[in-house]
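Re: your question from the hallway

Yes, I did run it. Sequences:
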Amino acid sequence: MSLNETNVMLADSSFYICFLEDIGQPEVLTKILDNFRFLITPIVYKEVSKSVNFKHIESNPKIVLLPEENLGEALRPFFSKEEIEKGETEVIELAYQFYADDDPKMFILDEKEPRLFVLRNLPYLAKLMIGTVGFVGECYYEYAILEKSEASAIVLVISISKFRVSAEVISEVLSKIESR
Amino acid sequence: MPKIVEEYIVSLLGSGEKSCPTIWHLQKELFIFTKMNPKAKQLFNFVKHYEGPFSQVVQDSLKDPMYYEDAFDTKQNGEICLTDEGKKIFSDLRNRYIHDEKFIQLLHSFKLIRDIYDKLTKEELLFLIYVTYPEYIEFSNIYDRLVKDQEKRMRLSRNLLKKGLITEDRYKELIECVVE
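Structure:
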């Protein structure tokens, strides 16, 4: 996968919060943003804007706020209030729309259950779905945005932070980074 | 106005790979569509009814269509499908509006709704609609049986979880939900 200007990503709030709050390294997020265009949905934006470190990305032109209201409504009955407030339903529905438009976009979803929902009910979106830690790995070995040592260090910092991720995922991504 | 409602029904039915399971599915799937597209609310005018949100214009269009008389068919098992004539109408609609972004978007929304809501049984469907949109409880003659009855609520929630249609967090919400 090569990096070009059209690389567009979607992400739930936990992705942004991971860098802004959990590991407190907004500069890493800025570095990633420099190389992508992130479409941000209204609920995700609202959630992320609560971060005290939001100022680091607030005026970043690579973050594009989508004005679409009512995104996520079709999935509302199947998700908890908390999951909806994290933007999970918005991101899945938006990813679906792009896919249906024959313009698939990668999307970052971190919570286990929403990811399972996608796998079980919208399996055609699975290959576009990635987690924050996996994406950090890809920022090294797919996109060359991060140095090898930098990517490993970030993954390790994430593993001991508040960010929820399994030891298996950490180990898998570290191995992939090391082997490239 | 009935003509456009009939066209919506043709499009909803045409967007699924199989027949629509029941009349309740058709009604509630269009109701969910109005949640995604509030502009369509006025057209369908969903009201509180014995079995959840109900649109008289949808019911009339289906039972006694004025414009597309031979487009829909209700099978003996209650499933609703497009007839050959209905399939032709759907194909004509698609060809006519192939460059209309809003129409394409509408088809995508219908496909997403059908992919997920068709998997629900009638009881699961009504249960989820009631707990998600409690403003439609009034006048219901099945709310007590589906939601207030704790055993039934537990069973329906468990089935939904087993089928992978709700997340674990949503399951907890559903079994703990405070009912009126």
